[in-house]
Amino acid sequence: VRTWSPARAGRVNASHRACLIARFGFIYAQERLDAEALLRTVICDIETVQRIIYIAAVESFRAAKMAFWKLKLRVKETLAIGHVGPQPLEIAALDYIACHKDLYDVCQSVQNVICSMNVHPKLPYPPEVDFCMIRTLIRELCCLAFSMQTLIPPLDIAHGVDGELFNRTMYYRSCDSDFTAPFVAYHVWPALMEDRTVIVKGEVVTKR
């Protein structure tokens, strides 16, 4: 039986972390654009399309984090009954969830995200638009966000606010931005954070 050690746990965590960060980058570079292309078939305005995708990312992380929190409580209650050994209960719960991701009801999270988007105040959209069109992107983001919660410390996204001062350490400007404008008009993609440190920059549009 392989015993737990902080050094081995750290190596596993670092490897898992690197894979999840790479996955976040791939979703931004490819699957986000695939979702944009789908939405552009029914929405002509690129700003509206980009706002939809950004809010989908934010809502996906929110839904996955809530699902993770609820599952971790249940797992800790179960493991506490017979927990022994040097490994802290919190770490044991994280390891258990990381090894049993099938416990996560991602379909429920996807449905929660779509419901949230349907009533989101910042999403004016034509009635013929069905956010199920980008279900694949939402599912991938939910799964990724859920897995990121098993890291120590967990990874999360920054929550931007329209009109905030542009922060070059946190965001890139989109190519159609006014590069002299100091304020963010809207967000295209969130920045990935670890505690308060930017791990991967997000993307914004700046305008006067």
Helix content: 40-55%
Number of individual domains: 2
Give the tally of β-strands.
Answer: 6
Q: How far is it from the N-terminal to the C-terminal residue, by CA?
A: 62 Å
Radius of gyration: 19 Å
Instruction: Pick out the low-confidence regions.
Output: none
Mean pLDDT: 90
Total helical segments: 5
Major beta sheet summary = 3 strands, antiparallel
Describe the protein's architecture and organization.
The chain is mainly alpha-helical and 208 residues long. It folds into 2 domains: 7-154, no CATH class; 158-207, no CATH class. 52% of the residues lie in helices and 12% in strands. The chain contains 5 helices and 6 strands. It has helices spanning 6-40, 46-80, 89-99, 106-118, 135-148, and strands spanning 155-157, 171-173, 184-189, 192-194, 197-200, 202-206. Helix 1 packs antiparallel against helix 5. The longest helix has 35 residues, at 6-40. The mean pLDDT is 90.
Quick overview of this protein structure:
It comes from Machaerirhynchus nigripectus. 52% of the residues lie in helices and 12% in strands.
Task: Walk me through the topology.
Layout: H1 6-40, H2 46-80, H3 89-99, H4 106-118, H5 135-148, E1 155-157, E2 171-173, E3 184-189, E4 192-194, E5 197-200, E6 202-206
Parallel strand pairs: 2-6
Antiparallel strand pairs: 1-4, 3-6, 4-5
